[in-house]
Write a structure and sequence with these properties.
Helix content is about 50%, strand content about 20%. It is built from 17 helices and 12 strands. It is of the alpha+beta class and about 425 residues long. The strands form 2 sheets. Strands 1, 2, 3, 4, 5, 6 and 7 form a 7-stranded mixed sheet that branches. Strands 10-9-8-11-12 form a 5-stranded mixed sheet, sandwiched between helices. The chain has 3 domains: about 1-100, no CATH class; about 155-235 and about 370-385, Ribonuclease H-like superfamily/Ribonuclease H (Nucleotidyltransferase, domain 5, 2-Layer Sandwich); about 235-360. The chain starts with a helix and ends in an 11-residue tail after the last helix.
């Protein structure tokens, strides 16, 4: 292949191939040099200088040719900068200062790690895991400065947390509901954490936020009320239903313990963990077999019968025609829940009473943080693929790579 063709494939502007040092079935080693007309750019002042102070050769890996890895031997000029008197290495457009890979190769690694693990990407490229990690992290940090600083502005957002480590270690994620993209994340789930997001937006952009979908966490609510003063706070429908399902499941667990204690085999069979999804589903979505089992369960157990009635009644709130009817229905449900005698539903009723304003806001703006749950599943899959992350900063960047503006499948990254 002609040298100019190879130079074009390697994407090394202003440089030419001096000679191919060696070539095997797996590697090519190439000596390159700058064109004589190409003056070096000082990394200190950013200006071009004439005479170099010295020249040092470095080796960097570039884009592969066929099945061969390519190693470039680059003479890097060093200049004594007239502005500060310090000797600086020249800046080369297609390679980062101090890097041992070209930008094109780093981008290729970054794109590969967006669809597979670092270990598998390393095996495919012939690199060890640690090197893939360093290259990918550097590329993501470069993209983050370009696309995530300042924080992208949104109009309607969803805020949710996801566990990144055992023992209640959480990340707070902010999703742009309209663009369906993650815009910001940080370690922790306190009000101070979400305050950092609002601070990064600035007061004007905070005032322009129209709505915020939350899971009902008091920390998120207090932070949002303080910073996004014009935003409509909506208790997400998905999380509200999730809470009532959890209350029903607590009743099932209590009755299962009592059934085992009383050796009631039929009730144990109907309330064991394999059958819990029958209680969590809507009645209209149950199969004939599941409906029969649920009817039998309600016949022989009064607490579960009450729990099912309360659950179905709560879900009917979201079927109301308007906010007035929904409010009326909530008060009726609260009376039923507070007098039912079931601890989990009594606790839920007080929580619903406290957050009734935010539940009713759903009828003013029907936004949902269901997309946050979808992203949470992606994040959990990402964590499982890597068998966990020790570097929380890198993990946050990887989340942006899979769910946010650093996703090469959705956005053009240069």
């Amino acid at each position: 292949m002609h040298n100019n063709s190879i130079r074009s494939l390697l994407n090394i502007p202003e440089y030419k191939i001096k000679e191919i040092i060696s070539k095997t079935e797996t590697e090519i080693h190439i000596q390159i040099e700058p064109y004589k007309r190409n003056k070096g750019v000082c990394s200190g002042c950013g200006k071009k200088h004439e005479t170099p102070h010295s020249i040092r050769e470095m080796t960097a890996e570039g884009l592969g040719l066929g099945q061969r890895r390519v190693f470039l031997y680059i003479p890097k000029r060093r200049y004594k900068c007239p502005e500060d008197g310090i000797i600086h290495t020249e800046t080369i457009e297609w390679i980062d200062l101090g890097a041992r890979v070209t930008k094109a190769f780093a981008k290729s690694i970054n794109r590969l790690t967006a669809i597979t693990t670092n270990q598998e990407a390393g095996w495919y490229l012939g690199l060890n895991d640690e090197r893939v990690y360093r290259i990918d992290k550097a590329a993501l940090e470069r993209y983050a400065k370009k696309f995530l600083e300042p924080t992208p502005v949104s109009t309607n957002i969803s805020v949710d947390e996801v566990a990144w480590k055992k023992h209640h270690r959480y990340l707070t994620n902010v999703i742009d509901i309209d663009k369906k993209v993650l815009t910001w994340n940080a370690k922790g789930r306190r009000a101070e954490v979400l305050n950092k997001y609002y601070d990064s937006l600035g007061k004007e952009n905070c005032r322009n936020l129209a709505s915020v979908a939350l899971d009902g966490a008091k920390t998120y609510i207090s932070s949002t009320k303080t910073n996004a003063i014009n935003a409509l706070i909506v208790l997400d429908k998905f999380h509200a239903i999730q809470r009532v399902n959890k209350a029903a499941d607590w009743v099932r667990k209590d009755e299962l313990r009592n059934a085992r204690k009383n050796e009631d085999e039929e009730l144990v069979e109907l309330t064991n963990c394999k059958q819990r999804f029958i209680l969590l589903k809507r009645r209209k979505k149950l199969s004939d077999r599941q409906s029969t089992m649920l009817n039998r369960l309600c016949e022989i157990n009064q607490p579960i019968y009450k729990a099912m009635l309360l659950k179905e009644s709560f879900l009917q709130i979201y079927e109301c025609e308007n906010i007035e009817k929904a409010e009326e229905h909530i008060y009726e449900w609260l009376e039923q829940a507070l007098s039912c005698g079931l601890k989990s539903f009594i606790e839920l009723a007080w929580s619903v009473f406290e957050k009734m304003e935010y539940i009713l806001n759903w009828f003013k703006k029907k936004i949902s943080s269901a997309i946050s749950e979808g992203f949470n599943n992606k994040i959990k899959r990402l964590k499982r693929m890597a068998y966990g992350y020790k570097d929380i900063h890198y993990f946050k960047l990887k989340i942006h790579q899979h769910c946010g503006y650093l996703n090469p499948r959705r956005f053009q990254l240069n």
